[in-house]
Amino acid sequence: MMQQSRNERSLGELFSDLTRDMGTLVRQEVDLARTEMTRQASKASKDVASMAVGGAVAYAGFLAIVAAIILALGALGLPLWVSALIVGIVIAGIGYVLIQRGRDALKKVNVAPRQTVETLKEDAEWAKEQTR
């Protein structure tokens, strides 16, 4: 029988190393995905906060200005209910624009972990080459 030289490793050792390396690689990919998702979620939370502030500003504007404008339009001869309707529509329109701006910003946030997907593709290629 021929003895294996010290530089040659058994098939079992090679598969053991490959399994260990793949486990490490998967753990690192999960950590990368978690980091990337956290970063994206942080940006999305800022956009949500912008939407909330927009809603609060629209509401505060409604409370602060509506009474004065309704009374001013009423002083010009419009019935108070018509004045209230006109002012309500204008303030609601401003609130709508602010909310749309925040929603559009949220649509631009990509929550897919792109870097992780790319490295997973690279890892798959590496694993293929390791088994050849």
On the 0 to 100 scale, the average pLDDT is 82
Question: Which class of secondary structure composition applies to the elements?
Answer: mainly alpha
Instruction: Count the DSSP helices.
Output: 3
Gyration radius, rounded: 31 Å
Distance between the termini: 27 Å
Q: Unreliable segments (pLDDT under 50, ≥5 consecutive)?
A: none
Overall geometry comes to: rod-shaped
Kindly give the count of domains: 1
| Largest sheet data | none
- H/E series: HHH
Beta-strand segment tally: 0
Helix content: over 70%
Strand content: under 5%
What is the topology?
Elements: H1 11-75, H2 80-108, H3 114-130
Give a quick rundown of the structure.
The protein has helices at residues 11-75, 80-108, 114-130. With 132 residues, it is mainly α. The chain has one domain.
Protein model, in words:
With 132 residues, this protein is mostly helical. The protein has one domain (34-130). The protein is 84% helix and 0% strand. It contains 3 helices and no strands. It has helices at residues 11-75, 80-108, 114-130. It is rod-shaped and about 100 Å long. The model has no long low-confidence stretch (mean pLDDT 82).
Based on the model shown, name its key terms.
single chain, 132 residues, mainly alpha, 84% helix
